[in-house]
């Protein structure tokens, strides 16, 4: 018998991956959590039927969420990750020696638990002494923070289920308040092929709050369309104005200092969503 | 009953698309040809089980094959397209007013026939007076040409079936001979996630023949991994050295003059394939 996992990424299109075995399946307090071992992508974390991360391609998302804002900010010391319970963004954040503290606020403790068990090379750095892990509601955490963080990264699921509040203008206003006066935030904002309206709406909302609002892209094979977008809002520093000497050596598989700027050069139909 | 078409893009991974109906299916002299109407991507041309083009995302591939070399060459007049029987590359080539003649050499006349019938907005320009369509073996056509073309574009299927000869060093040497002394060629060279060896080998072969060899990328949702590569070989002109005044206005949905250079900025693991 062959087992295949299929994610319907839209009503009418999806990806399908051959499964060696199911490692864990559970209805948590917040969502359906599945961890499977695939032939092509290694272990794969699936939440509410949607691929969150895989061992083979996780580096793209995690590097691109973390390094673009962290190399844009001249001295990021205090970093917050909202969501991201698999720990991959935290792992990348810790590659920056300026970072003194990285806080992870993940609503679902089960995501952390099973990522540590089945995705150890992704989640392993959650044990680092600079990291504080809070199992809590990211929306509430943001609402209670003020003038505290240099960089905030929103590593959420899609705007269904527990993440629905994380795509609202009220949330972005809260982020602005939680950031210091020269803070930067970035959020994953889905793909331009099937979710153009979402990107357009987020760009509009963020632009009303942050003086510098930008969209950048990366290729993630297991995400819908393979092209993923990230919306960046910044109070002071422009990611396109980073000078060359700002970049220090870090080990990456996707991000480079050249890509730091090229990832903002958008295909025309994507650029049109930012206007 | 719901009908879904599934392409196994590797042994263990694929895409699946809901089908409204099958428009045509036929074993041609060279390959299995299917034309289906999908819910998500409109009409879709499938050869030997692999998606070739769809109405929704075809513009990416066709624009990126055509405009990168055509804006690199200062005065492309005589252009050859090998393969590409759907006519999409030809449509883009004809947007360049310098082009006096565009020759299409497609081995399988059935691809042309059913593209005209079911993909008219892609194939319609094959009737243009500047276009000559030859139903012939591209490998042989290249072997018989000398010092003739300004730009050659290889719009082939994967290196299985009729296209296997189009990924050989002998073919690239033939292309060099068929090009004028300042000619440029580009070929689609699959994706870096599942076909890294192919890209590395083509880069090595082309580099031994063309003084300027480059790799660029584009996002195509219906192709494996969503990230597609194109290998460009040039005798004289560097696509990265094109000056701004060279670009003239054309109507596109993906290509822009900024992307002309940014598409050569590769993720690290892809850049490593070119070394």
From TrEMBL, chains A, B:
Catalytic activity: S-adenosyl 3-(methylsulfanyl)propylamine + putrescine = S-methyl-5'-thioadenosine + spermidine + H(+)
Assigned EC number: 2.5.1.16
Enzyme superclass (EC): transferase
Gene label: speE
Associated pathway: Amine and polyamine biosynthesis; spermidine biosynthesis; spermidine from putrescine: step 1/1
Keyword flag Glycoprotein: no
Protein name as catalogued: Polyamine aminopropyltransferase
Catalytic residue list: 155 (proton acceptor)
């Amino acid at each position: 018998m062959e087992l295949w996992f299929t994610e319907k990424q839209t009503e009418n299109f999806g990806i399908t991956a051959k499964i060696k075995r199911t490692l864990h399946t559970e209805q948590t307090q917040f969502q359906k959590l599945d961890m499977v071992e695939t032939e092509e992508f290694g272990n794969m974390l699936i939440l509410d039927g949607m691929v969150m991360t895989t061992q083979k391609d996780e580096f793209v998302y995690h590097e691109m969420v973390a390094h673009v804002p962290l190399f844009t900010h001249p001295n990021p010391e205090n970093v917050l990750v909202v969501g991201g319970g698999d720990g991959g963004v935290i792992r990348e954040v810790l590659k920056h020696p300026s970072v003194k503290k990285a806080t992870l606020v993940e609503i679902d403790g089960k995501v952390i638990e099973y990522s540590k068990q089945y995705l150890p090379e992704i989640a392993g750095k959650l044990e680092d002494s600079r990291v504080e892990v809070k199992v809590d509601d990211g929306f509430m955490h943001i609402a209670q923070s003020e003038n505290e963080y240099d960089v905030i990264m929103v590593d959420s699921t899609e705007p269904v289920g527990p993440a629905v509040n994380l795509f609202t203008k009220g949330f972005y206003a809260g982020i602005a308040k939680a950031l210091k006066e020269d803070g930067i935030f970035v959020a994953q904002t889905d793909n331009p092929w099937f979710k153009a309206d979402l990107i357009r709406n987020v760009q509009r909302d963020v632009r009303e709050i942050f003086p510098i609002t930008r969209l950048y892209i990366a290729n993630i094979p297991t995400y819908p369309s393979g092209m993923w977008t990230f919306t960046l809002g910044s109070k002071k520093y422009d990611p396109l104005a980073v000078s060359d000497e700002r970049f220090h050596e870090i080990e990456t598989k996707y991000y480079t200092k050249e890509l730091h700027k090229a990832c903002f050069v958008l295909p025309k139909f994507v650029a049109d969503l930012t206007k």
